[in-house]
Fold this protein.
Amino acid sequence: MSVLNDIKLKAKELLEKGDVDVVIGYAKGTLNGKCTPYFVRNANDVENLVWENGCDINLANYLLKISDKAAVIAKGCDTRSIVNLVKENQLDRERVVIIGASCPSTESCQKCNHPDPVIADVFLQGETKVNNDDFSDLESFSKLPSEERRNYIYKEVSKCIRCYACRNVCPACYCKECFVEENLPAWIGKTTNTSDNMIFHLTRAIHVAGRCVGCGECVRACPMGVDLSILNRKIMKDVKELFNVESGLDLDTKLPLNDYKEDDPQYFLIGGEKCE
Ligand code: SF4
Ligand code: SF4
Ligand code: SF4
C-alpha cells in the first residue's frame, strides 16, 4: 500500500475517533507542481490529501495559528521545527499527533540531510533520498573578499519590498511583535531603503541562528526572488562547527544560543578567524 493511502487511513481514523479536531496536510495547489497546506476537519475530505513532489511547505508554522488538538503530516523539516517549538515552549507536544513520513519533495531541497521525521507518533516510511550536504557550496563564497560577500548580500536585499512573507512563513519567527514593527525604539525605517532592508535581514538571520532548520520556506515564499539561503547556511555551518549542534534533531539538546557552557567557543566575541 502507498504512503499516501496510509496517510489517508490514519488521518481518517484520528478524525473519526475524535482524537483530533483537524489534520494538517497538503492538497493539490493551483500552480502546476505545487501543493498547498490543507486542513481536514471532515473525515470524508481525507481523499483530497496528497503526498508528492511539491509538498514542500513547512507545516509546523500552522500549528501555532490554531488551538485545536491537531495532527500534522510531517516530513523531516516540519518535525525539526516542531522539536524547536516544543523546546522553546511555544507548542504543547501533547496537543499534536505527528504522522511522520519521509519527504516526498527532495527535488525542492537538494541540500537537505534529514528528509525523514526526527520524531513521530506514527511513522509511515516513504522513499528516502538522503543527500550528503557538507556545505561545500559555501567554500567558494567564503573565500571571496569580505567586500564581495557584502555586495552579494546587498544586491539580494536591494530587491526586497519588505512584504515580510519570508518572516511570516518561518516557524522560527513567531514573535507577537517583530522588531521591525516596534516604534519605541524604531529599529529600522519603514521604507524599502536598502540599508534598512539589510538591517532587517541580518537581524532576522541572527534571530534564527541555531534555530533555522534550513527548510527553504523563506526563499520559496519571496515574491521578489530574494535568496539569502547562503547566509542562513553559513550560520548553520558555523553553529555546527562551533557548538556541534544541528537544529531541531532531538528534544533534549538545548538550543546552542540559549545555553551557556564554560568552554563555549568565543570567536564571535573576539573576532577570531572563524568569524571571517
Ligand atoms: S519575502 Fe522577499 S520581498 Fe518579502 S520581506 Fe522577505 S525578502 Fe523581502
Ligand atoms: S525577525 Fe526576529 S523579531 Fe522578527 S519575528 Fe523573526 S525572530 Fe521575531
Ligand atoms: S529561516 Fe527560512 S529556512 Fe530557516 S527555518 Fe525559517 S523559513 Fe526555514
The chain has a mean pLDDT of 91.
